[in-house]
Design brief:
heterodimer; A: alpha/beta; 3-methyladenine DNA Glycosylase II, Chain A, domain 3; TIM Barrel; Rossmann fold; three-stranded mixed beta sheet; 16 helices; 16% strand; B: alpha/beta; 2 domains; eight-stranded parallel beta sheet; two-stranded antiparallel ribbon; 13 helices; 12 strands; 36% helix; globular
Chain lengths: 472, 434
């Protein structure tokens, strides 16, 4: 089980002066929001006064999640990864959505490179009122040439706000790039058994987060982490290796799972850092055709995301490859404690007129988007969402959170009663037993019991509602 | 406030003089729920004393000083600041500190029941092969704890009457859509499906309302024509499904087929009777509500369906349409089962086909890329999330999605991998020229 903090655990490390500089009513309210990651300690300026030094340290220790938060990059598009406090999202919630990084390399032509970088930076897919975007650029050193690598890094930094992951196992190559772009706080990739002392120096000198790698060897990974921690480094990211060939993906999953469980449920601080997965590794030994390789990259990314990857490095930029990954992230990184709801009220689907059908349903986001989609397919109409507290329609009917009274009130409040001519309303099939009562309330209206499955709405409108309305 | 030597755990109402007296002999001091009421507070430690004492005592005194400063700040008193000591010089490690990572193995009090689908001649049926699902002793694919006892399986859909299907799916079944036996064989032989679900769509009262005995005859014919185990799906109408299942149970007696599905609004006693008396299995389908899952499973079990005949389905929201609910419900269900809840010690079924509810799967939008790729990928990812959450059985439509799911399920269920990780040049992803 995750270690759940109470506001009092955090409050005792705050100044306790209730000065209000953070914008909260008092320190206790600030403590509660700190636990929920809704505010950060920087919002409490007094904490950084010398007199509170001990408190600040104790507070940081208390708030430190079993998987450390690691910040990569600077400015508006800097990303924080990790920060996980539970293995299973239902136990609390997964904080800090998996960051998705797209690769480029230092032997690409300048135009091609910048085009790709811009494409990544401006990528956006709007869905359920959210903008789904990509987060980072991964620069791979293919040339083996320090100058070339550093110049490419500078070029990217000059043209994009996106945080970078710099990839080379050679400390000389890495240092050239860090001289050029170290102030942008890129993630260094990667320290290993051979180079770790040099990479420790670089991470410490340029104050950049560092990836620790030991491919297929978790004991070595832990040993490296322990040594690097002793060195004074604490902004680490772990790469145990993303094996994708043959049956080896099973071992990848096994390693990711062991690492995350140990970090959280065994409180193993040595490996309590974000995990990096590389679905782009499918391109080392591609499938029989390009489409299959892309598909594999996509579904392995989704698989690693639910098996705890905090960063995913991908190669394919096709929308169809990235969509499932972005939507998967949108799904699993919602807060399971808060039902997703839309605002109760009247929605117009495809510019309805006074002759368009009228539907009522609940306000769970899921219900809304499904029904809306199907009303759209049916040619449009009016949609009244009753406030069911975001609970699914079926549960709302059973739990009396979707009643004839509520439907009637919602129809009155939204003014829809006066907007349409046909005086008929379609209620969900699952709410069939409310039809009589509602008909009594609405007097000269007709109440239709629609299908149970929202997907049957188009058929229902075509074969039932229009026919009946035609008769009238 | 606790005093290490004397074990004083509560000092409510203590005065400042007593406090100072205590502080004199203190070694370690910690505060808990301290409340101090005072108007003036003074405390002094002379530097001379500090110099005269041993390092151990000095450390203790420093701790006392820190606590006093903490106390003072609680009271709002300013204490003159002593310059902080210079940061300790970190000894940079020169050698790697070798440690061993111990796999985080837990023990569980429960395990998931095994369900056998299909019965051979010896077992009272007529199937050539049988399939086992469930039996897990740990969360899904925690290979470091236990190997997966039975690989999660895939069942492609076959319909007695063709419902509207995405064109990209129909393409794969060209030529067999009118021949159910050929259709089933294609699913198994060509597309590698472990088993199939024969959906009796035509029995839907609002479609063709095929009478139950006629539907049972149809199943009987299929039982004769194919020798693989399969599932029988109803129309979703609770009353009609009960009639259909009762008739089908008669013709499929002893075959260990799976009836899909029993829902909370059915006469569960009758369903249970049909299942247990005829040696069949049944899927209990709830609607994204964990309490309903419990209620449904425990009712069916109370009415005589054994754990080894029951499969639980919490409903699958497709990717982008509620998959996170399904994912977390399945995880909760599986963990509850492993923790000992008997009504959750049941294999889980996942309708990955629901992935097609998302418009991203089927809608023609050029900017999104070819829907021929999006569709199967969407269904596959819907299923894969179920796989990682604990599902044992997948109802699927697109052959490519089924292939992806089966392959991944096989890979994850392997007890040992044939590759040597050291032989795989993973680090080449950094330098590869693509």
């Amino acid at each position: 089980m995750p270690k759940i903090l109470r506001p009092l655990d955090v409050y005792k490390h705050l100044p306790g002066t209730n000065c209000g500089k953070c914008g909260e009513i008092n320190c206790m309210a600030f403590a509660a929001k700190l636990i929920e990651r809704q505010v950060s300690i920087e919002q409490c300026p007094p904490l950084f006064e010398p007199q509170y030094k001990a408190k600040l340290e104790a507070l940081m220790e208390t708030l430190r999640p079993p998987v450390k938060e690691v910040k990569i990059g600077v400015g508006d598009r800097a990303v924080t990864v990790g920060g996980k406090v539970c293995v299973y999202r239902h136990e609390l919630t997964w904080y800090y959505p998996t960051a998705i990084a797209i690769d480029v390399h230092d032997e690409m032509g300048e135009d091609e490179l910048l085009k790709r970088v811009k494409q990544v930076e401006s990528f956006v897919f709007e869905r359920i009122g959210m903008k789904l975007t990509l987060d980072m650029i991964t620069l791979r050193c293919v040339s083996g040439n320090p100058d070339k690598f550093a110049k490419t890094a500078s070029l990217i930094a000059a043209n994009s706000q996106l945080p970078m992951i710099l990839c080379s196992f050679d400390p000389n190559i890495m240092e050239e790039a860090l001289i050029a772009v170290g102030d942008k706080k890129p993630l260094i990739y990667a320290a290993n058994e051979k180079n770790w002392k040099d990479f420790a120096k670089l991470a410490s000198k340029y104050q950049c987060p560092l990836t620790v790698s030991a491919f297929g060897d978790i004991s070595m990974l832990k040993s490296l982490c322990r040594s690097l921690r002793k060195y004074g480094l604490d902004d680490l990211v772990l790469d145990p290796g993303t094996y994708t060939v043959g049956d080896s993906f099973g071992e990848t999953v096994n390693m990711f799972t062991m690492l995350r469980r140990s970090a959280i449920e065994k409180e193993d601080v040595d490996i309590g850092y974000p995990l990096l997965g590389v679905p782009a590794a499918v391109w080392i030994s591609p499938e029989e055709d390009e489409v299959s390789t892309k598909m594999k990259e996509s579904y392995l990314a989704c698989s690693l995301m639910v098996r705890y990857a905090d960063i995913l490095i991908m190669h394919s930029l096709d929308v169809w490859v990235l969509l499932p990954v972005l939507v998967c992230r949108q799904n699993v990184y919602t807060d399971p404690r808060v039902p997703l709801a839309v605002k109760a009220g009247l929605y117009e689907v495809k510019e309805p007129t006074e002759d368009s059908p009228l539907f009522v349903t609940g306000n769970s986001a899921l219900t809304y988007f499904l029904v809306r989609n199907d009303v759209e397919t049916a040619g449009g109409g009016w949609l009244v969402c009753v406030d069911t507290g975001g609970i699914s329609l079926q549960s709302s009917v059973a739990g009396k959170r979707f009643t004839a009274d509520m439907i009637y009130e919602a129809m009155k409040e939204t003014g829809i009663i006066d907007k349409i001519r046909h005086k008929s309303v379609i209620i969900p099939g699952y709410a069939a037993r409310l039809s009589g009562e509602l008909e009594d309330m609405l007097k000269d209206w007709r109440v239709f019991v629609g299908p149970r499955e929202s997907s049957d709405i188009p058929k229902f409108v075509g074969s039932v509602w229009k026919k009946e309305m035609g008769k009238a | 406030m606790a005093h290490e030597n004397e074990g004083i755990s509560s000092m409510r109402g203590i005065g400042v003089p007593e406090l100072l007296k205590l502080l004199k002999k203190v070694k370690k001091l910690s505060f808990e729920d301290v409340e101090i009421v005072a108007e003036e507070f003074a405390f002094e430690l002379t530097p001379i004393v500090l110099q005269a004492v041993s390092p151990e005592t000095q450390k203790t005194l420093n701790q006392v000083k820190e606590r006093v400063a903490e106390l003072a700040s609680l009271l709002g008193i300013t204490v003159p600041q002593v310059a902080p000591p210079p940061p300790p010089v970190v000894e940079k490690p020169l050698e790697l500190e070798k440690v061993t990572f111990e796999p985080p193995v837990f023990t569980y009090t429960g395990e998931i029941a095994e369900v056998q689908i299909g019965a051979t001649g010896k077992e009272g049926g007529t199937r050539k092969k049988t399939i086992k699902i469930g039996g897990e002793k740990c969360p899904p694919f925690y290979r470091f704890e236990h190997p997966t006892p039975n690989r999660p399986v895939v069942a492609l859909d076959v319909f007695d009457l063709l419902p509207p299907l995405p064109k990209t799916i129909k393409e794969y079944y060209k030529g067999v859509l009118d021949d159910h036996v050929a259709w089933i064989n294609k699913c198994i032989e060509e597309y590698g499906s472990d088993l199939v679900t024969v959906h009796l769509v035509s029995t839907d009262p609002s479609i063709k309302n095929t009478p139950a005995p006629e539907a049972a005859k149809f199943i009987d014919k299929i039982l004769d024509a194919v020798d693989v185990p399969f599932m029988v799906g109803g129309s979703g109408d609770p009353n009609k499904d009960l009639e259909v299942f009762s008739e089908v149970a008669q013709v499929a007696k002893g075959e260990k087929l799976v009836l899909a599905s029993a829902t909370i609004d059915m006469d569960l006693e009758k369903v249970a009777k049909a299942v247990s008396e005829n040696n069949l299995n049944v899927i209990a389908l709830a609607f994204l509500d964990i309490n309903q899952v419990k209620e449904l499973n425990s009712k069916l079990m109370d009415f005589g369906v054994s754990k080894n005949q029951l499969i639980t389905d919490p409903s699958t929201g497709g990717l982008g349409y509620g998959l996170e609910y399904t994912f977390s419900m399945m995880e909760r269900m599986r963990l509850a089962g492993l923790m000992g809840d008997p009504v959750m010690q049941i294999p889980i079924s996942c309708a990955a086909t629901n992935g097609w509810a998302a418009r991203e799967a089927w809608m023609k939008v050029d900017e999104w890329g070819p829907r021929e790729y999006r569709g199967p990928l969407w269904e596959a990812v819907t299923g894969l999330l179920g796989l990682f959450a604990g599902a044992d059985l997948f109802m699927m439509m697109h052959p490519l999605a089924a292939k992806i799911l089966k392959k991944t399920s096989e890979i994850l269920s392997k007890h040992k991998i044939k590759e040597d990780l050291k032989e795989i040049p993973y680090e080449n992803w950094v330098t590869m020229k693509i």
